[in-house]
Amino acid sequence: MSEVTNQVQETYCLDILEDGLQEFGLTLTEGQKQQFVRYYEMLVEWNKVMNLTGITEFGEVLNKHFVDSLSIVKALDMENIRSCIDVGTGAGFPGIPLKIMFPHLQVTLLDSLNKRLKFLDAVIGELGLEGIHTVHGRAEDGARRQEHREQYDLSVTRAVARLCTISEYCMPYVKQGGFFVAYKSGKVQEELLEGKKAVSVLGGKVEKTEEFLLPGTDMERSLVVIQKTKPTPKRYPRKAGTPAKEPIL
């Protein structure tokens, strides 16, 4: 493929990114565009030797990973958020896109696999991002560490586990008055009913659910916004593996 063709394709795909973000009221600087492009290049490069994502086509990554990660602005004013932890970050979604878009954020990327953290550290270095770092560990263990427990304005995850389980992973990190936002695919009414007790027990209340279509697609998305109204009881999270096997119901 010629360099000219590559440039045309890159411009077209960046239009997809910009148009998608425009629907959220977001505008990228030239520097941010280049950071997203380089992030994509590193994602595909490292994906050849480790499993980071099943989505590798440029336009799809921009939309299904980057735009999707930034959709949180439909539900929350990110300018008022100072600290954020991405629990089970994987390839860095939504944490790194949030950091690129909102440089003021202090971001922690938590994951249980060291090889993924090596990738994320490489991305952070290559993109010149500051005020962002990686932490190795399971969600249940990290939330028991004093430097992380109830220290964040915002906890986020795109994990596929049900709300009753991921609430126990994520809520203990959030300070009182802060938020836990779960990125979900499709409708979530059933999960909300199932997870109502867990959210309450862990010190939160569902503030709202934002349902929308991912820009340029017919893919349904939901953002569940939970506010932390009181401290999480010390017994939570329970030991590793328990929240998934025995969710609070």
Walkthrough of the structure:
The chain is α/β, with parallel strands linked by helices. It has helices at residues 3-22, 30-47, 58-70, 95-101, 114-127, 139-142, 163-170, 189-201, 242-245; strands at 83-87, 106-111, 132-136, 152-157, 174-185, 204-213, 220-228. The protein has a 7-stranded mixed beta sheet with strand order 3-2-1-4-5-7-6, sandwiched between helices. Helix 4 (95-101) links the parallel strand 1 (83-87) and strand 2. The N and C termini lie far apart (54 Å).
- Beta-strand content estimate: 15-25%
Please summarize the sheet with the most strands. 7 strands, mixed
Q: Determine the N-to-C terminus distance.
A: 54 Å
Shape: globular
Could you estimate the helical fraction of the residues in percent?
40-55%
Following the backbone from N to C, one meets helices and strands in this order, namely HHHEHEHEHEHEHEEH
Structural class of the secondary elements? alpha/beta
Number of helices: 9
Runs in which pLDDT lies below 50 for 5 or more consecutive residues are none
Rg value: 18 Å
Q: What is the spatial order of strands in the main beta sheet?
A: 3-2-1-4-5-7-6
**Tally of DSSP β-strands:** 7
What tags apply to this protein structure?
alpha/beta, 7-stranded mixed β-sheet, 9 helices, globular
Care to give the gist of this entry?
This protein is an alpha/beta fold and 249 residues long. The chain has helices at 3-22, 30-47, 58-70, 95-101, 114-127, 139-142, 163-170, 189-201, 242-245; strands spanning 83-87, 106-111, 132-136, 152-157, 174-185, 204-213, 220-228.
